[in-house]
Amino acid sequence: MPIKQNNLHWSPRLLAIVAFGWLIWMGYGTMVGEAAAPPPAFNHDRTHFPLTGQHQRVDCEGCHTGGRYENLPTQCGSCHNGQRASGKPASHVVTTAQCDACHGTTSFSGATFTHDATTAGRCDTCHNGRTAPGKPSSHIATTTQCDSCHNTRSFEGAGYAHDATAAGRCDTCHNGRTAIGKPSNHIATTGQCDSCHNTTSFTGTTFRHDASAAGRCDTCHNGQAAPGKPSGHIATTFQCDRCHRTTGWTPATYASHANPLLIGGHSGLECRVCHPQSFTSAFYRDGVQFGVCSNCHRRDYDPGRDDHNNASLQVNANCANCHEHAGYRW
C-alpha cells in the first residue's frame, strides 16, 4: 500500500518561530526586559604602554585607528607630531629627543632635563641664548663652556677651577672687567694676583720676599703700597731688611753690628737702648757717645766691690780686655 507523503509549507512566520527557538536553545538570546552585560574592561597596564596621566583620558580610537590594536609604535613623536596630537611649539628648544626625555604624562609644563647623556664641554650647543638660556649681558667675558664653572643643577653658585690656568697671567681675567680686579685700596703693584693670593680666596694673602726684593723694601714698604716705618721708628735711611726679617717685624736685629758685637747679653737688647734718636751714633744713659765698653758700663763699676786690683776704671777702660763679652762674666 503506497505511503502518503505530506508536503509541509514553510511559511515566513514558521521560519521566524523556528529561528527564535534555536537562538534561545543556543543561549545567545536574552530574557525580555534583561539588560545586556557590558564588555569586560581592558587592562592596558599589561601592555608595553601603560596609560598614565593625561593618556588615561584619551579615547581608544584616538590611538587605535583603523581597528588596529597590536604592534603600534610607543614613541612620543608617533602621536605628538602636531597632527594626531600636540607637538613641539615653535618656541620649543631645538631637539630630536622624545617628549618623555623632559616631560611627564601629567602636563607639558614643569619639564626637566637630565644632563647625564650630554657631552662635557659642548654646553653652547643648547645654551646659546636661542635654544636654551645662554650667558646674560652681565656675564664675565669668556669663551669657555658653561660646565667650566657651573653645574647642571643651577647656574647659581658658580666656581672656577684654576688648575688649567697659566701662572702669572691672572690679569687676563682679574682686570676689573672680565673678573674682579684690584680694589682701589689695594697695594700699588704690577705683580700678578698669584704673587700673594691663592685661588681659594683673596683673603689671607702672603708675599714671597725672594732674593730679588733684597735692598728694595721701600718700593712697597713706604706707608702707601705697604706698611712703612711708624712715626716712632728710629730715624734711618736703611732698608727694612737691614734689621727686620720677612717673617715678622719683630724681633729686629742688626747683622752688621761690629762694635760691640751683638752676641751674648747684647743680643737681646732693644736698638733704642743705645740708639734712642738715630742709628748714626749711639748714646747711653748719661748722653755719652759710645766709644768703649766703659761708656755704657761706667755705672756698673762699684769700686768697693770691683777693685780691679786697686786700679782705676779709667785704666781698664776697655772691659773686653778682662771680661768675657759673650757671657758677661764680670
- N-to-C series of helices and strands: HHHEEH
- Overall shape: it is rod-shaped
Percent in helix: under 10%
Mean pLDDT: 76
- Give the number of helices: 4
Strand proportion, as a percent range, falls in under 5%
Radius of gyration: 51 Å
Number of strands: 2
Spans of at least 5 consecutive residues with low confidence = 1-5, 28-33
Which structural category fits the helices and strands?
A: little secondary structure
Strand order of the largest sheet: 1-2
Largest sheet: 2 strands, antiparallel
Q: What is the compact description of this entry?
A:
The protein is built from 4 helices and 2 strands. It has 330 residues and is low in regular secondary structure.
Describe this structure in words.
The chain has 330 residues and is largely without helices or strands. It has a domain at 253-330. The protein is 8% helix and 1% strand. It contains four helices and two strands. It has a two-stranded antiparallel ribbon.
